[in-house]
Amino acid sequence: MQVIDPKILGPLWRYMIDFHITDKRDKVLGYRNLSMLRKRLEPVMIRRDRKIVKDQLPDRITSQIDVAMTEKQIDLHDSAMNAAGRLATIAKRRPLTPTEKNKLMAALQQARMACDAAGLVDKETEGSPKIDELEAILEEVCLQSGLKVVIFSQWRMMTQMVESRLRQMDIGYVSLHGSVPTARRGDLMDAFQNDDSVQVFLSTDAGGLGLNLQAGSVLVNLDVPWNPAVLEQRNGRIHRLGQTKTVQLITMVAADSYEEHVLSLVQSKQDLFDNVIAEDGDQDVVGVSKKLLETLTDDLADDLPGDTPKTRVDEEAENIPAETVDQYDPSGSPLPDNTREQELTACIEELQQQFGLRIERILGVDGGLLTVLDQVTAEDDQIVEKLSETIPVAIIDMRTLAGLARLGGGSPVAEQQILYNGTEQKTAEPGLSGLQLLASEKFKAATVLLDQNCAGVALDLLLSALLVKASDQAQLTAAVTPPDAGVWLYSEALPKGFLSQDDAALIMRALALAQSPSVPENMVNDLCLDAELFIAA
Fold first, then answer.
1. Distance, CA of 278 to CA of 281 (rounded, Å)
2. What pLDDT sits at residue 513?
3. pLDDT band at 160 (very low <50, low <70, confident <90, very high)
4. Closest alpha carbon to 342 in 23, 57, 2
5. Cα separation, 394 vs 35, whole angstroms
6. How many helices (H) and strands (E) would you count in the chain?
7. N or C: which end of the chain has fewer CB within 10 A?
8. Which is it for strands 417-421 and 393-397: parallel, antiparallel or unpaired?
9. What is the DSSP string of 362-409?
10. Per-residue pLDDT tens digits for 265-291
11. How confident is the model at residue 164 (pLDDT cuts 50, 70, 90)?
12. For the chain, what are the domain ranges?
């Protein structure tokens, strides 16, 4: 809209006030005035949807099959959900660190994978109840009725398991995934459309867009994607102009599992989209409900399958300030009263935002914060004075801290509690700067998520790692953010020689992929390899 007509939505701050429902901390809880938003968009939006051609489309029958999991699947699923539940409970008390967020997403991803097959997680267990259910469908549709079927799964390994079952059943198929070159996709589609011996088109979400598969009359979703648009794109491969048969759309959902939560979330997202875009949208307020972490906290953390009572370490971990989670020692002394915990966390976050890598340590002293900087200036004192309105904050340099320590038990820092130790992070790997260490950590987290087929979050982390590394090469004290990256690259980084043209191209490629709703697996893997070389340099 900023390109088409920036006046329609107005400035961002006005848009947020008009259409967002937020809490006291500006966290989005829901959306309002959607009828006003629809009216504003109407003059500049041309949308061709199925309602325009519905009289030319056959009927479609949508059904859901609940599939019971095996004991192994349940164990893997519950283990992941227990881990996610503990992190969600911590999120109820304070913001999660980036490491904790990555662990949460990885746990949820493991739970979703376990819903399909235990082998997706442990790489050893064979078979899947969903594939057994699929075999019964293929027996009826392909072997008995002679019809063609399109099958989607988010996981490449799941499609490989299906391929094995198709070969056992002697059913001809073609398979599309992210590693298939674009030039070959047309041949796969033509084979499915025109070759009677090819009865199954098997695909990951790499084939969810741009394919015409009207030869199929049944579509099976082996799992539920996060994005409702992806689910509709899948279904639209066979329910489109040129289809002459009644279409049957089947979605398999693991019974009593996190996958049911995902399906509910997808449906609520679709509800929001319909009431912003659709002409017949009739709701003015949508989505005033808890988001993912809050849903996990309330629905899962207090009632996890097979959950065990919290240990002392678990209870204390919930009270760790976000910035100290990796340095926290559960055997040490407890943190200040939980009633002030949120204020302390917010204050520490603001200190890190203001001073960044200049912080050597943050100490808890008598209910306040003593921040140790590399050096202290008059401007620093002015910043701290504003922060002290809620939590008392004082700043000193390392020499002053060492002098106070010499006073022994009479020192004001004798009872100090280290809440954040920047020195440990800076010296964790000799010769590496703080930004370089951060870039390496983000890259490692991205590779873990890629192994779990969590490409969306991994792309964000890869982009962030590249920007942190680029900022380090430019000798900046804080990383450049994605919205500022393009301008910074071509106004400073390249003209001043901080980065080469190849480096800039790599970062712009990561920006483009991170903004894309669907990225082929091979492109993500290629980006990861190039990013590794850049970050390690």
1. 5
2. 85
3. very high
4. 23
5. 50
6. 22, 12
7. C
8. unpaired
9. EEEETTEEEEEESS--HHHHHHHHHHTTTS-EEEEEHHHHHHHHTTGG
10. 666 666 666 666 665 555 555 554 444
11. very high
12. 59-69+130-256, 71-117+290-320, 339-421, 434-536
Nearest to 256 by CA among 111, 119, 104, 106: 111
Amino acid at 243: Q
Contact residues for 48 (Cβ-Cβ < 8 A; gap 6+): none
In the structure encoding, which two tokens stand for residue 144, read together?
């008995």
Strands (E) across 243-317 are located at 247-254
Q: Two tokens at 248?
A: 């049957």
The class level of CATH for 434-536 reads mainly alpha
Mean pLDDT, the chain, integer: 76
CA 101 to chain centre: 9
Q: What is the pLDDT of residue 452?
A: 63
> What tens digit of pLDDT does each residue of 365-383 get?
666 778 888 777 877 888 8
User: What length does the chain have?
Assistant: 537
Lowest mean pLDDT among 128-142, 186-200, 346-360: 346-360
Greatest CA span in the chain, whole angstroms?
Answer: 88
Residue 336: predicted pLDDT: 35
In the numeric block, the tokens 């099976």 are attached to: 220
Q: How far is CA 530 from CA 50, 474, 537, in A?
A: 41, 19, 11
Torsion angle defined by CA atoms of residues 446, 449, 454 and 456, in that order, rounded to the nearest 10 degrees: -10
DSSP characters for 123-172? S-----HHHHHHHHHHIIIIIIT---EEEE-S-HHHHHHHHHHHHHHT-E
Tell me which residue has tokens 């300030």: 321
**Nearest of 105, 54, 41 to residue 273 by alpha carbon:** 41
How far is 447 from 460, CA to CA, in rounded Å? 12
Mean pLDDT value of segment 405-423? 56
Residue 334 has which token pair?
Answer: 């407890």
Which residue has 């065990």 as its token pair? 308
5's tokens: 């007509």
Question: 335, 341 in Cβ contact below 8 A?
Answer: yes
Provide mean pLDDT across the span 157-185: 90
Q: Are 131 and 67 in contact (CB under 8 A)?
A: no
Homologous superfamily in CATH for domain 59-69+130-256: P-loop containing nucleotide triphosphate hydrolases (3.40.50.300)
Please give the average per-residue pLDDT across 106-116, as a whole number: 89
Q: Which helix (H) or strand (E) holds 269?
A: helix 258-277
